[in-house]
Amino acid sequence: MSIVDAAGAHRAAEEAAGERVARHWPEGHGLRGWITTVDHKRIGRRYMVTAGVFFTLAGIEALVMRTQLALPEGRVVSPGVYDQLFSLHGTVMIFFFATPMLFGFGNFLLPLMVGTRDMAFPRFNAFGYWVFAAAGLFMFASLLFGVAPNAGWFAYVPLSGERYNPDLNLDVYSLGLLFLGISTTGSGINFIATALKLRAPGMTLSRVPVFVWALVVTSFMVVFALPPLNLANAMLFLDRRFGTKFFVPSGGGDALLWQHLFWLFGHPDVYIIVLPALGIVSAIVPTFSRRPIAAYPVIVLATVATGIISFGVWVHHMFAVGLPQLAMTFFSAASIVITIPAGIQIFSWLGTMLLGRVVLAVPMMWALGFVFVFVLGGVTGVMFAIVPFDQQTTDSYFVVAHFHYVLFGGAVFPIIGGVFYWWPKFTGRRTNVRAGLWSFWLVFAGFNLTFFPMHIAGLLGMPRRVYTFSPGLGWDPWNLLSTVGAYLLAVGLLVTLVTLLHSLRRGAQAPPDPWGGETLEWATSSPPRPHDFAVIPTVYSLHPLWDQLSLDSFGEESRSRLHVLDEGHDVLRTTELDAEPQRSLEMPEDTPIPFVAAFGLLIAFTSLLLGGYFAAIAGAAVFGLALMWWLWPRERPGGSGDGGPAKGGGEGSGEEGGRAGGEREGASA
Amino acid sequence: MLLASCGGDSPSTLAPAGAGARRVAGLWWLLFGISVAVAVVVGVLIIWVLARRTGAEVRARTGSGRAFVVTMGVALPAIVLAFVYAVGLRDLRDLADPRDPRALLVEVVGHRWWWEVRYPASGFVTANEIHVPTGSTVHLRLTTADVNHSFWVPRLAVKTDLVAGRVNEMWLRAERDGVYRGQCAEYCGLQHGHMAFHVVAQPAAEFASWLAGQARPAATPPGGEAARGLRVLQSASCASCHTVRGTRADGKVGPDLTHVGSRRFLAAGAIPNTPGYLGGWISNSQTIKPGNAMPPQPLTPDQLRSLIAYLGTLR
């Protein structure tokens, strides 16, 4: 029996073991199912939809700002409102859109790409989503009360301090980001554990898809970069509420300390956003070039190198604050060096296309558009590494242009491309090609028309974050062009949204593998069943769905207990480096605990904000009790029969698994 | 006259009129050239990929492509970047503070949302307009009275932040006479967008006479409208926030008004200094610059007219 493609692999596995496995992966329904689910696909989709809503809201804020700046001395909004709009726009796009959106992709795709059935910590995953949603609500609700953050997304002290900002605006900022940080950090840990412990047998580190690498590097960066941000926000909150004066020079504090802490997080965060997006491109390009990615080891090294070097460049945000020249030369050098791994990725995609046979499907259009705009954002990035040029143009509209090319070009283009690419997998539907092309060209044109003129406005001396400007300074035409572009961009994004919604209602049913992809997610149904894979395949190459051995394993491994895992709600644990099978792991099932825990935190943070410290303690107590309930040792219903706790039962079957895996490894070698 | 000729000019970094800005403009054109080259290379590669696609049967090649990636993504960029870095270092060194002890020292204090300008050697204080002798190096000592600001005159020099609790220094040298617009470049709250100033570069002799004029206290008006205006100034709330040297007005909250009539703009560049705008500003500055510290002044039309007349004499 020979399996010819991903759909065949999926069919063979489902026929052999689908029903046996599906019994143990029930899907919750109704409101209860909605709240209690721990399914990584539902959580992933939920992340993406919620992040999409935040993107829309923050985009509308941007549209209001562009309307205000269309003409000099505009009076569309008051300066106070404008300040909240741009602060919330940046904060939301960075923290509540980009990372959660990409983590939504990761949630949905990472387990599928590595060939397992869920994230390593499914309840923690659900908890992460609820915390993210609650923190987003916390942040956005502030706008309704007129106390949205208003000191910019990097909230420099002393402006963000109690003295110059006595209302709740900056408390919302510091608490909101602390709250969200719990979710982001948890997701990072979850991705790392999943990618290291749950890969399908045979998926050695040299066979891990670039997207997964990118997500893992990003996750490590999250784990190391968020502590300085959390520290800074905790200190800011203490300064504001309890007068600790960490950042108040007259009280022995230091205003620059905030900047160092913030950017020690802030610059890695640029790559935390961009790396997974580049990972999406690394998934799209090989599929539509009909060949594996060029120079795989080099692009993986580049991804890892980016993650490391990104921690050594933060001072380039501070070249104008009066630091010693010697210090600046070091950070200038590091900032230049970090462009090399980015260049490697660009030429790896170009090389893949040059050596391949390019198919111009809609996702590929987005990837190509991305390459072009990302290069434009990259070259201006090099400029900011050069100290004198940075000192001249930093905090001008040139910077606004630069980082929108990097973040909109480098993250939103791949995200939309990725949505079109994996839409069949997410929803089971296909999208209209003509509408997809319209959406691409409108967004591409609108994007460039919005942000390219900002380079020029910046070179002409226009500072960023001004709520209006005087006529006759040479800035008028460029601002008007930007505003026209912003409306065109909005139309493009609306077309994108309508295309997707139309597909959801009217789209044709998608087969498992509509594009002929190389990675394992395409060997599941569209959308995947709750158990993802009826049979865990053995992976023999970087592109398992393009090699016969891996395809065949979907059928052959159905005879192996460890690859079918039909005795419970189980996944397969493998070794970190070589993905040798170890044992089965029983995964937790649907539970309301994460929801309750996140709700407790929401009460705690809201009470802290409003100064109700006893209520905050009560909220924290709810959280603590939920944690106890969560971690309480439990009997496993209908388990292995030895009556021990779940973990013990798992150990028992694990011993067998280890031996069995060892045997098979020997046979396949 | 200067206002008419230069006030409307764009504060463009690409029209440098100072030593620092000129060097950076040169750097920009170098970086721009390299950027265009990079964009062209990538653009051509993309177009080539797409053009080839429609050609004859093309088969995907299975080679790893490593040589291509390493050459284009590592070797070539490393050479270009090393060169760019070296040029950047050279410019950084050349733009270092010359620390000339004979240079004129000007102290600039950032306030929300205006600029206090002090000439310590001459012992006077002014606001929002910095005069410098053309062709001479001028040292600036930058501090802030409240939040962070950034001192940026794009045509003259790179920007330097005013950071709370710190003293920063920078220098500039105007190469040509003119009025150069500057603006706060670090977000500082509601009226960050209206925190401009002007640097007036003038020949040494003209500058010396300006310096001497500014150091003198305000002349007492002989009588008439202006004298009535002085009485309004001293009796209304003006004097509690503003100083006019030579009168009883010695407030320290707002800008020094001793020679306000000689300035080109009011309210940190927000409006031109004409009697009409001045009257509007005094009556209710909140309509022009919402959130600024000056409350609306409940003056009678007569009082207002006298006050405008008096302030106009403060040259």
Structure summarized in a few sentences:
The complex is a heterodimer of chains A (669) and B (315). Chain A is mostly helical and 669 residues long.
Structural commentary:
The complex is a heterodimer of chains A (669) and B (315). Chain A is mostly helical and 669 residues long. Chain A is built from 21 helices and two strands. The radius of gyration of chain A is 25 Å and the shape is globular. The model of chain A is unreliable at 638-669 (pLDDT under 50). Chain B is 38% helix and 20% strand. Chain B has a five-stranded mixed β-sheet, with no helix packed on it. In chain B, strands 4-10-9-6-7 form a five-stranded mixed β-sheet. A two-stranded antiparallel sheet of chain B has the order 11-12. The two termini of chain B are 16 Å apart. At the A-B interface, helix 4, helix 8, helix 9, helix 10 and helix 11 of A face helix 2, helix 3, strand 7 and strand 9 of B.
Approximate strand percentage of chain A: under 5%
Discrete helix count of chain A? 21
Rg of chain B (C-alpha, Å): 26 Å
Q: Which regions of chain B are unreliable across 5 or more consecutive residues at pLDDT < 50? A: 1-8
